[in-house]
Amino acid sequence: MITISERGKNMPSSPIRKLASFADNAKKEGVKVYHLNIGQPDIETPAVMMDAVSNAHLKVLEYTDSAGILSFRKKLAGYYQSKEINVDYSDILITIGGSEGILFAFMACLDAGDEIIVPEPFYANYIGFAMAAGIKIIPITSTIESGFALPPIESFREKITSKTKGIFICNPNNPTGYVYSELELLQIRDLIKEKDLYLFSDEAYTEFCYDGKVKSTLTLEGVEDRVIMIDTFSKKYSACGARIGALVTKNKAVIEAVMKFSQARLSPPTLEQIAAEAALGLPADYFEATRAEYKKRRDTLIGRLSKMEGVYCQSPQGAFYAMAKLPVADTDAFCQWLLTSFRKDNATIMLAPASGFYTTPGLGKNEVRLAYVLNEQDINAAMDCLEAGLKAYPHNIV
Amino acid sequence: MITISERGKNMPSSPIRKLASFADNAKKEGVKVYHLNIGQPDIETPAVMMDAVSNAHLKVLEYTDSAGILSFRKKLAGYYQSKEINVDYSDILITIGGSEGILFAFMACLDAGDEIIVPEPFYANYIGFAMAAGIKIIPITSTIESGFALPPIESFREKITSKTKGIFICNPNNPTGYVYSELELLQIRDLIKEKDLYLFSDEAYTEFCYDGKVKSTLTLEGVEDRVIMIDTFSKKYSACGARIGALVTKNKAVIEAVMKFSQARLSPPTLEQIAAEAALGLPADYFEATRAEYKKRRDTLIGRLSKMEGVYCQSPQGAFYAMAKLPVADTDAFCQWLLTSFRKDNATIMLAPASGFYTTPGLGKNEVRLAYVLNEQDINAAMDCLEAGLKAYPHNIV
Which of A357, A347, A338 shows the shortest CA–CA distance to A380? Predict the structure, then answer.
């Protein structure tokens, strides 16, 4: 009997998308579903991006260079330089979303059986890329009570074996919204230097920091050849559907190896590269309005959550996610129940159960991730649903 | 010392793209380079595709469903049904080019160490996907003298071990242009049934068959759950830069497993899905003009090659490639020399050395792949260059 592969069997379903069929059914019944489960913002994509595509007047929709359009890479280098990140276009490869950047980083730096250490909870799709690459993620648990700060660096040191090839962080963090402090980043830097490791850093949300500032791992001194930074246009410019990201590193051997994987898949999508290049022409203050909007949404969300009985949630500093502890024993069941059996004014809320963001069994069972990607009115309506839902939930109240 | 991965080291550079820097240098000197090295047609992309993108007036460039836009999948199912291929939308997942479809097929059906049998020469990027998936390609050599017909089915049988999980064909074939006969396909069908194997089939060029007809592997009876067909919009609609393809199979377990890999990378690019969906609204006779154009180009190319001393080339029935044997000992060196040291009327030709399409060492050293993707005038000018180049080449004339 032909069967699917072991990795195909072991590959987890996306915790962000796995309840989708229940949401679809609710919508078919005419129920309004507030999507706080997925990082799909309602912020308008800058018009210059779509205009650039329309104005390109391409006769033939051709492949681009496998590394991405050269003028685009040069402008992107300029964007990083404006943030005092010392890279040029040759340090940058355009990828199909941040997703492909992560996969290529794993493929180029790690072999099957290698291990990387990742603070959990972490973006669930990392598991998928690890599975595809045949590598093992070793989690170190951060806790909701500490605001998901970096666990003590000694706990990383204890997990390092001969198979450990790197540490992987996401900063600002998805799903926690935590922004690593300079001190924490320096601790990581010293450890990867001492233990001869790579540092993979997913910096998709770097423009979204509401208190203080994000330090890019590319500015860490003395580990320039160890840092592989993954970026994306999805969140920055509310252009998730563009699937345009970048892998950035000063390590030329890694660039060369990633380039070979890039050549195998020929090129990133042409139209969206044109759109993304146009976005880089936006004025420097473009992000201020978006940042202010997300900050307002965050404050609304956290304000509402803090008033709900039995709910625990600290205010996250960055990205557009918050993790909350709910007074239920199993958020997988609760989130499903919200979609199948609960309605408030013919509406309900969709959340991402947190269990999918942990790999240590049993963790996150009473936590959820909330994406504050909707406007304030919708966030308030969604919070009305959550508040009423928690009161109405017949099972497992702790 | 941190190092790149073994797979990163072993990953081959693209034989189609590896001479690119020599071509770039020639262009910088003002030399006209005729690109017969890469399957990038000069045929105009249908205007309806670009128009659909401009007319979509998207406010937010959102993720789509990981499986692809539903209405697009339904129309694509209609396209296959019009060719008497019995599939519906649930048998179809939209992928980021045919490239991703192949990678996902490997990931979902095969584990590291598994083997697939592939007639060589084959599309070089298969090696890259095999490397990424950790699987092994076992080549069976087809020969230029036989027009690259399927090698005797017994030679496949002899290579089957306990690790063999499938056979992989490309039909019409890249790089040879060969179109497998119904008899050959039935031989493969019987073997995969007998030996309990998958049949992976890359059918990117199925619209381009100039003599006779292509039979899709999806129409092979009795092996419906074994066939994984990979399709792409790149060549069909001259939209290589769109990076839109599809994985099609009646095997639901495979669809489910591939769906998990699809979810990990979120979604295919939105704008290009809109463009591709619009292409499916083109009239049924759309391909006739393109097909007639390629046939004319093929006949021009083969006519010219057949008149060159020492050159051997049969007329291919499909795709837009031809393999030719040249009177030189090493086409890698010759193709590089054409770019660096040969000019005719300030022009030269770029070809793909065939060694990269074989995995058996030493094969293809005196062969090249020619893509007849340029207009007749350019093909003639390119053939002028090749003819003069062969006469002028100072080394290794056989």
Answer: A347
